[in-house]
Design brief:
This protein is of the alpha/beta class and 361 residues long. The chain has 2 domains: 11-325, Rossmann fold (3-Layer(aba) Sandwich), CATH 3.40.50.970; 327-361. Helix content is 45%, strand content 9%. The strands form 2 sheets. A 6-stranded parallel beta sheet has the order 1-7-8-4-3-2, with helices on both faces. A two-stranded antiparallel ribbon has the order 5-6. The radius of gyration is 21 Å and the shape is globular. The structure holds thiamine diphosphate (TPP) and magnesium ion (MG). Thiamine diphosphate (TPP) is lined by residues 92, 131-133, 161-164, 189, 191, 193-195, 256, 260.
Length: 361
């Protein structure tokens, strides 16, 4: 027998759950301001998530997907991107979208069912939230192909969940991207669950990162609760792609501390004990412990940050609530350049109902 190929998957961590460095930190972490910016972004995201859930519970927002416990994945990845890069998020990457410049008001509009929430003023070419699981991976490969053909030094960054890695779209996109050495980075937010399906029942593969190997590109695993590790691995992959060396798959190991969405009750299918254990690994307390031990973060700064984040989130919520709703017929306006006949008929029906309602009142 001759061995024709051999592969290893590395796992990257810099800071353990107690906030202790496990190895020398990457250069960017020498600047306290950089780490504090990551910490602030994670706290703001967590504050936003809590507010969005409470708005949904009080009937003022549609279904919402919290990123509780997974803030380091979104924030670490977006922090490694340059403004000219392009983010293709799924539905749990609000922390990345905020760093990119999407506003909290815009995302509340999105989750409130307002089409304007997908038309953000900020990064005009970033994609809107993708709810269909995994359908945006081929789009990311297409975006990256466009960058390559135009000779633009830009990178497409596509974020998706562990469940998405079981979809055919994921394999097709990765195969295509590796073959053509496209400037794209695929990031799996492995939060251990796809609604009620646990990671162990998702795939027989030992890691999700190794799904890169068959496509012919590097796959790396990072501690997704260590924002320094995420920022580092994402940065290396993004600059590798920009340098013409092709795509990378990053598997970020984290945990979904929340329900899947506000339409879910996770206590029906997983033990409280599992969730409690995972709270000991979450990313916000971890970075805070690190910063406090390094003398870079004080109780007063923490209190000010909590107050500032709450105020910013509350202001966004008020702006969202004060935004007049679009007419119901607006739901037909954003998908097709020309409406198919069946949808045009539905649009007329909705408009007719609105006129009748107005006349009756
Ligand atoms: C194509 C498709 N099938 C099914 C669904 C319903 N659905 C929404 S989220 C989800 C699970 C996604 O799990 P994962 O990819 O791990 O992402 P997570 O929700 O954990 O962030 C499913 C099956 C969907 N949105 N799209
Ligand atoms: Mg998942």
């Amino acid at each position: 027998m001759t061995q024709v190929a051999a592969f290893t998957i590395e796992h990257i961590r810099f800071v353990d759950p107690e906030g202790q460095a496990t190895q020398p930190l990457p250069a960017f972490a020498d600047q306290p301001d950089v780490l504090i910016a990551l910490y602030r972004a994670m706290v703001l995201t967590r504050t936003f998530d809590a507010k969005a859930v409470s708005l949904q519970r009080t009937g003022r927002l549609g279904t919402f997907a919290s990123s509780l416990g997974q803030e380091a994945v979104a924030v670490g990845v977006a922090a490694a991107m340059r403004p000219q890069d392009l983010l293709l998020p799924s539905f749990r990457e609000q922390g990345a979208q905020f760093l990119r410049g999407v506003t909290m008001t815009e995302l509340l509009l999105y989750w409130g069912g307002d089409e304007r929430g997908s038309d953000f003023a900020g990064p005009r070419e970033d994609f809107p939230i993708c709810v269909p699981v995994g359908t945006h991976l081929p789009h990311a490969a297409g975006v990256a192909l466009a960058f390559l053909l135009r000779g633009e030094p830009r990178v497409a960054v596509c974020m998706f969940g562990d469940g998405a890695t079981s979809r055919g779209d994921a394999y097709e996109a990765m195969n295509f991207a590796a073959l053509y050495r496209l400037p794209v980075v695929f990031v799996v937010n492995n939060n251990q669950w796809a609604i009620s399906v646990p990671r162990a029942r998702q795939t027989a593969a030992e890691t999700l990162a190794q799904k890169a190997i068959a496509a012919g590109m590097p796959g790396r695993q990072v501690d997704g609760n260590d924002v320094i590790a995420v920022r580092h691995a994402a940065g290396e992959a993004i600059e590798r792609a920009r340098g013409g060396e092709g795509p990378t798959l990053i598997e970020a190991l984290t945990y979904r501390l929340s329900d899947h969405t506000t339409a879910d009750d996770a206590s029906r299918y997983r033990d409280d004990a599992e969730v409690s254990a995972r709270w000991k690994e979450e990313p916000v307390a971890r970075l805070r412990a690190f910063l406090v031990a390094a003398g870079q973060w004080t109780k007063a700064e923490e209190e000010a940050l909590i107050a500032d984040s709450a105020a910013a989130v509350e202001a966004a919520a008020q702006e969202y609530l004060a935004t007049p709703a679009m007419p119901a017929a607006a739901m037909f306006d954003h998908l097709y350049a020309e409406l198919p006949a069946a949808l045009a008929a539905q649009r007329r029906e909705v408009e007719g109902a609105a006129v009748a309602e107005a006349e009756a009142s």
